[in-house]
Amino acid sequence: MTLDRTPAIGDTPSCVRAERVALAVGVLALLAAVGLGWRDKALFAERYLVVFFFFLSASLGALFFVLVHHVTRAGWSVVVRRLAENVAGVLPLFVLLYLPIALLAGDLYPWAGHAFAEHNPELAAHKASYLNLPFFLTRAFVFLLIWAALGTFFRRLSVRADTGDGSAMAARLRAASPIGLILFGLSITYASFDWLMSLEPAWYSTIFGVTTFAGAVIAGLAVVILLTLRLRSTGALEGVVTAEHDQDLGKLLFGFVVFWTYVAFSEFMLQWYANMPEETVYYQSRMGAAWQSWSVALALGHFVIPFFFLLSRHIKRRPVLLGIGAVWILAAHLLHLYWIVLPALHPEGASLGVLDLLCLLGVGGLFGATVIRLSRGASLVPVRDPFLSESLAFENQ
Fold it and tell me: What are residue 383's phi and psi, to 5 degrees?
């Protein structure tokens, strides 16, 4: 089975307009967020961190999808791989978007201030060699540059293959993907330790990075699903991506929802059973009166509801229902990030407001504009991939 056309969106007026609108919304919303948060820099930094990591994790999840596609020599996913490459291709943008966090790290992280050292002198001294701003920021930009390099490398070679030797490029990408997976696994783990777990420097969990990884993959899959459905509805991928691919994307999403739950519950159960104060303090603040409703909503929204919703084969094959599931999962992922960050800094409780919306629109607008630009810049499908015919003819058994 072969393509009878090259799927692309090009410079159609609607795409150009969508990119410009997204860019304008992003820039204006970010400027408004900075203006609103100027008087309380710590508040702006914490809300910006949540939104920054939300969109970053979606790009990282898409990058993981691309890496696994190559390392496993998958055939079914060829027709959706370019969409994942475009989402992963946004990663260089996050080097710039991290600058507000870098500038406000001293206001955001408790270990960066004098009060923490005064109240916890032993702990502060013990962790000072790792948790200090120069080393912290150095690690941050190393992680970001690794991700930017991986996202750019895999997309660039894939696009180059559209006009060259597809088999040779596919072999190069397969050879590079195991190294990429190792770099990805180590960097996302330590980034989660640094950016999220260190908000509570007295608490630690060796499995925290795995939970973060699972959330990133869920977010990446959800974004790829939404892009696939949107482009198919416009006719750009009609007859190329089918219900068979929808079902497999839905199965992956369902599987990682279960994996996230397994890891998160195992962490909770083991720390609850051991009942060690330095570990249980993390859950005590989140199960208290101020955050109990958030914890219940997270359990229901991130596992119970999507588990039963995505369990059905028929739902995964229906675009509207699968799209609803993907949007729901993204909302649950955002809730999870708020659940990590806000109780760490406000155990007495906190509420969301206009600043959160502005940060979401700001980073989201820039993220969306970049995805559209990358999608316009090349075919939506790797047209010379050696496994393309297999992907076009793919059917679930």
Answer: -70, -20
Q: In Å, how far are 123, 157, 176, 269 from 386, measured between CA atoms?
A: 55, 14, 17, 46
Question: Can you tell me the distance from the alpha carbon of 261 to that of 278, in angstroms, rounded to the nearest whole number?
Answer: 23
pLDDT digits (tens, 9 = 90+) for 349-366: 999 999 999 999 999 999
Which uninterrupted H or E stretch holds 2? none
Q: In the 8-state DSSP scheme, what is residue 161?
A: G
pLDDT higher than 80, residue 163: yes
Q: How far is CA 327 from CA 4, 11, 317, in A?
A: 32, 27, 16
Of the candidates 58, 34, 33, the one whose C-alpha atom is nearest the C-alpha of residue 331 is: 58
Mean pLDDT of 202-209: 92
- pLDDT category, 215, cuts 50, 70, 90? very high
Residue 275 CA neighbour count, 13 Å, CB half: 1
- Please write down the long-range contacts of 298-301, taking CB distance under 8 Å and 24 or more positions apart: 298/332, 298/335, 298/336, 298/339, 301/328, 301/331, 301/332, 301/335
User: What is the total count of domains within the chain?
Assistant: 1
Distance in angstroms (rounded) separating the CA atoms of residues 364 and 359: 8
Structural domain of 121 = 13-392
Residue 346 three-state SS:
coil
Task: Let me know if residue 87 belongs to a domain.
Answer: yes
Any domain includes 299: yes
8 in a structural domain = no
Tokens read off for 165: 């030797």
Structure token pair of residue 223: 């974004």
* CA–CA dist 130, 110 (Å, integer): 14
Residue 5 lies in a domain: no
Q: Give the residue from 53, 62, 61, 56 showing the smallest Cα distance to 260.
A: 61
Rounded distance, CA 253 to CA 260, Å? Answer: 10
The pLDDT tens digits of the residues spanning 115-144 come to 787 778 888 888 999 999 999 999 999 999
The Cα-based distances of 136 to 24, 56, 111, 132, 151 in angstroms read: 32, 18, 11, 6, 23
| The residue type at 316 | K
Q: E strand or H helix at 249, and its extent?
A: helix 243-274
- Measured CA to CA, the distance from residue 142 to residue 187 in angstroms comes to 9
d(CA 215, CA 220): 9
| Residue 37: band (very low, low, confident or very high) from pLDDT cuts 50, 70, 90 | very high
pLDDT value at residue 13 = 87
